[in-house]
Amino acid sequence: DEYCFHNGKTRSESSRQMVSVAGCFVPFAVCVVSRYPYYNALKDCLSCLLTQLKLCQDFEVDNHIKEFAAKLSLIPSPPPGPLHLVFNMEPLQIVFPSRVDPESPIIDLDLHLPLLCFRPETVLQVLTCMLTEQRMVFFSCDWALLTLVAECFLVYLHPLHWQHTFVPILSGQMLDFVMAPTSFLMGCHLDHFEEVSKEADGLVLINIDNGSITCSTSSGDGMDIPDVPLLAAQTFIQSIQSLQLHQELDLAHCSSSTDLNEGQGRRRAWQQKLNGQIQQVTLQLLVDIFREVKNHLNYEHRVFNSEEFLKTRAAGDHEFYKQVLDTYMFHSFLKARLSRRMDAFAQMELSTQSEEDRINGMLISPRRLTVEKMALQRSSLQKAAQRRMVVSMPDLQDITVVEVQPRKSSLRQVDAVSCKGCSRAEDVAPKSIYTFEIPEVHFPLVTQCVQTYYADFVDLLSKAMSFLGPDNSVLLACYFYLRGFIHLVQGKLLYALLDFQNLYKTDIRIFPADLVKRTVALMSAPELAQVERTPELKRLIKEVVDKPREVAKADDHVKNFELPKKHMQLDDFVKRVQESGIVKDTHIIHRLFDALTVENSGHQKQIDPETFRDFYNCWKEAEVEAQEVSLPSSVMEHLDKNECVYKLSSSVKTNHGVGKIAMTQKRLFLLTEGRPGYVEISTFRNIEEVRSTTVAFLLLRIPTLKIKMVSKKEVFEANLKTECDLWQLMVKEMWAGKKLADDHKDPQYIQQALTNVLLMDAVVGTLQSSNAIYAASKLSYFDKMKNENPTTLSVPITTSEALKHKINPSAGETSPQAIDVLLYTPVGILTQQKKTADAHPTLWCALSEGKVVVIDASSRTDHQHCFIVGASKLNCMVMAEQSQVWIGSEDSVIYIINVHSMSCNKQLTDHRTSVVDLIVQDGEKTPSEVYSCSRDGMVLAWNVSTLRVTSRFQLPGHTLTSARLHQGRLWCCTGNSIVVVTTNGFLRQELKIVESFYNKSTSFLGFQLIPEEEQLWAASAEYSEVYIWSLQDLTQPPQRVPLQDCTEVSCMIRVKRQIWVGGKGLSQGQLKGKVYVINTERKTVDKELVAHTDTVTTLCSAEDRYVLSGSGGEEGKIAIWKVE
């Protein structure tokens, strides 16, 4: 009755005045239908409508509702980003929030509502039911809570998605829906609880009102909901308990609000902050549960090894993972991981990854428990035992497992407060939020008023854009999106396309490609003709409309690893081994194939399923044995924290007593028996000789391994018996790998040697025949190299002194990839991603087919990120400002990378052919202008802040390859000449190659300018020389600096008073990658550096202290050189 009105008065008031008037009151409802879940905003709108209806006459109700509906229909939905839309609907200011990014949901809910209704343990159980895709029904006597609480739980799962039926409210006539046999999530009034509980079996019944969760079963056995993994559950509970869920407590220190909208604004700000914290807590829960899934994925063949993943889980968690791994939700999650999608899960997983896990992700040898992790797990096991949270097991002290041991305690018994390993909810710094107030809608709602509203909308947007700083491109993109949309509904299609074109190069993430295609389809012939006359719109249509849509990958499925059932030839064997996760490198797998087929007498070698199964089992058994190694504390004190035990012999007699020989990546040591002790045998670097012999014992000759050290006179002897030949192979391979790693300053040699050693062990265990050792010797790669070609592997003294380190950006790939471009960026560019003190210089590596790998240049081992820009070769990179790296591609696009988010949201598409060079003024830390050159001779000047072309010119009849900016003029290498032009394109000088070379078919590859010496240095494709011209008179013949034994020049840079030239040349009778260091004063080659087995393709300077060289696809490594 409170909300029933007649002539603006309540029913009771009107009835007293009109007793004699007969009438009836018919209830009606106003339902707002939206494509987006604006729960709070639309609730506020309806509340405002209700206030207005109280004051109106009965004949005015329809008009008010029509005006209300019209007003809502004219409000656009904000694009993804930081811009929220605000409009006035008396007496409230209504806010329509935007989603954070295109992949995130719109959050217009109070996400803490379930946390007020349920204990954290119950919240975990509900999430478990959703992750295992149960048949779930929410109950409440408050209809509104059913939808709100269910929607909150769906948000908790992001970026995972509930893919089954979702009906938040069921009427009494629809209760038979709960009999459906498939997974669903539904909601009912609490009055139906008993009825639903009795009629349907196997339902999870969640009572919102009393915070309980039960299961409907006729047998009465109770719930069978598996527990969330213990450590993840403890962290979640601790974080939830640290949240401040009551606004009154959070705002107790603030003054009372005397303005309704101000109070709403405070509440909204508090809710947004709390929502962000809750999303971080639930996302961290998902990361803690699924973090190690990536260790069991094969990206090349899209395979997930679920069996091996389950083996790494604690026994008490098996039931949980078995149920989760069999769901549609997890299958979609795997698809996203295998596609390397950088969603919220991937970003948090990367940001919370430990340094050890980052390094392990780059290792090509199998992972094992480090000494540090052994100590931590032993400590956690002891604490867990004290809390009685594990089930006792026989010989527990001798077993080390990956996670906490099986438990029987339920989540309700977790002592969250005492969990020292748990962290508080992260206090997330709220991202900057901007609001844009929508203009008033004038009534009556006729065409003229609507057009006036649209015109006011466009004017306000244009005004806001004019006041916007150039560095806020994310907000600018939102304005472009909204203005383009308003132009579209106005019918101004050309203006709309211009805004969308600006949006395309400002933030491609929110670019509405389908909307642009529909717009072009609606355009008339005169409008299309005008588009053709506008170069920017013509390029947009070519890029978005005319370009065929990429066909979805046919192999978008996910395979579960299975052992082969048919005989395998080489190609199939390579694929199967890669799928298994044992090793990825194709060359290593080829040698493994040779080893396993030594007994194959047929003309066509192949491996039968039984042999593969035996090999796979041997490999996995060795992994388990290594995981179960438990070293005493007295032994761990002698080892480095990152050392792992990779191989342990059986108990043998040695000249230092009886014990087991242990092999790590650094040394051999004896683990003595009885009272466990440590006896150092030798580091691999200290070994001088390894040989196998026999010693007499009674009438027997016992095979013995002898190891002679450089620093010791005593020879270590071990009676290894049947293991002797295998250990000899393994120790010699590790010894050779360590020598190569030291000589070439490349730690990956020792990692690859470890892989070879473990494969030898598995091959011997598989074959178990007289040919087993011979087969294993096929994998002795580095030892053979050392014995057969000792001179070719040696590093010249000059090279060794200058070489500091080598990096393999292709680590973990199936084969090396050519390094096309290198860029070094100094300290401080990652300050938004990390704390300022943790920011490090960064190395950007452009590999084949648009792949970019970002490496921490200080540690040289830490991959920060890896992403794909396009699918073509990348030609050039430059740092345009502290937050942007520009990359020019063979596909004519300039990709702009945000160094804080490591994402590519901007593309410049003004070039028509390959972008070959990007130029900024030398010495400028934050350049305001970037010049880009394409192969067809087009040069564009870009304003870095606005991303607009400030000038352009065409070099007629020339093919550009590179350019330099010197004294306000551009020096352009065009192959057959070097031309000097102004920044407006006017020709000032030209150096033609025909005037200096007899071979007129040759061309310039690159050049460098030395202003202080007034010299131009250049290299040619056909000559193994560097040529030097005087800038005062380019017509004079050049001086020549010969490059000894050089067969190809590919790149050159200037560092201090040196010119570094990269290419290929002869060294010790073989073609190898070479770097020539030329002194610019003496004009002589000071050094010839040889550290690559393939052509040096690119050179890069790191603050003039180091030079980095990248090699071609046969090697695909980066060498770091010291500059003198």
UniProtKB/TrEMBL annotation:
InterPro entries: cDENN_dom (IPR001194), dDENN_dom (IPR005112), DENN_C (IPR043153), DENN_Domain_GEFs (IPR051696), TPR_DENND3 (IPR057977), Tripartite_DENN (IPR037516), WD40/YVTN_repeat-like_dom_sf (IPR015943), WD40_repeat_dom_sf (IPR036322). Forms oligomers. Interacts with 6 of the 7 known isoforms of 14-3-3 proteins. It is found in: Cytoplasm. The gene is DENND3. Pfam families: DENN, TPR_DENND3. It comes from the Eukaryota. GO terms for molecular function: guanyl-nucleotide exchange factor activity. GO terms for cellular component: cytoplasmic vesicle. The lineage of its organism: Eukaryota, Metazoa, Chordata, Craniata, Vertebrata. Residues 1-344 form the UDENN domain. This is DENN domain-containing protein 3.
